[in-house]
Amino acid sequence: MSTAKKEYKRVTVKSLVEMKQNGERISMLTAYDYSMAKIVDAANVDVILVGDSASNVMAGHETTLPITLDQMIYHASSVIKAARRALVVVDIPFGRYQSDSKEALRSAIRIMKESGAHAVKVEGGEEIKESVKRIIQAGIPVMGHLGLTPQSIYKFGTYTVRAKEEAEAEKLKKDAKMLEKYGCFGIVLEKIPANLAQEVAESVTIPVIGIGAGGGVDGQVLVVHDLLGMTHEFNPRFLRRYMNLYDEMGKAIARYVDDVKSRDFPSSEESY
After folding, report:
1. Strand pairing of 119-121 and 186-190?
2. Are 176 and 213 contacting, i.e. CB atoms less than 8 angstroms apart?
């Protein structure tokens, strides 16, 4: 398989399939606001996920469940304004697609029309197939999400690795093939055994993006606040921190406070 890297001025769902075919790994990061998205996009990240993880990192909720559709649209519209290259994918929040496929389509249409997003993402397999089919039939690109699905955390009761047992692993493989069959352009696999994730990635023609799913998939996704070390309570095995901004930002702000208190800031050069 070729590892030649093609330059993309604008990443599309077609681009991601080409990347998989060419053996090029796909980079994906979250962003929830204009300033962060501008930095992420300029770094040539392929996919920006406006994740419902905004519920945790932006709003301080314990789970992803409380975030609303209006809030997701707000975050997505902010990100879209900054994205010049990346494909922007937006999570449909909990409660807006699980039980009613018509409601799922209405939610997806609102996200696309009101934010300008390029695609939506949903969690689950067989249970949400009617919603997936209806959204895709309307011409809206859909990314699936299997394995640990945070919107179902109260069903699981834990954030531990999923699909370690044969029955769950078989269901996951079946669900992945189903999502491909109905037209999903990609799948996120979260926190499952690496050998299972690789098997799924090799069994489908669409890109498989992993988070805590090993290196045998077609790409990786992380929450940008975790990658930059802005959060410090969250320490899963799969997380690689590339900076420690929590400490660095704290030191910078503390210096500012000291300078204000000591009347060092603003100086005469910083005054009009």
Report:
1. unpaired
2. no
The answer to whether residues 123 and 192 belong to one domain is yes
Domain match, 251 and 165 both: no
Nearest one of 61, 49, 44, 53 to 8, comparing CA atoms: 44
17-40 mean pLDDT? 98
- Which residues are known catalytic residues? 190
Query: What is the 3 state secondary structure string of 44-67?
Result: CCCEEEECCCHHHHCCCCCCCCCC
Q: What is the pTM of this model?
A: 0.94
Number of domains in the chain: 2
Range of the domain at 235: 13-241
pLDDT digits (tens, 9 = 90+) for 143-199: 999 999 988 776 666 678 899 899 999 999 999 999 999 999 999 999 999 999 999
| Residue among 187, 242, 178 nearest 217 (CA) | 187
Regarding whether 50 and 171 lie in a shared domain, the answer is yes
Same domain, residue pair 134 and 249:
no
Same domain (yes/no): 186, 254: no
* Cβ-based neighbour number of residue 110 at 10 Å: 16
Q: What is the mean pLDDT of the chain?
A: 95
Query: Do 22 and 4 form a contact (C-beta atoms < 8 A)?
Result: yes
Cβ–Cβ under 8 Å, residues 88 and 118: yes
Task: Choose among 121, 131, 144, 102: nearest CA to 53.
Answer: 121
In single-letter form, the type of residue at position 127 comes to E
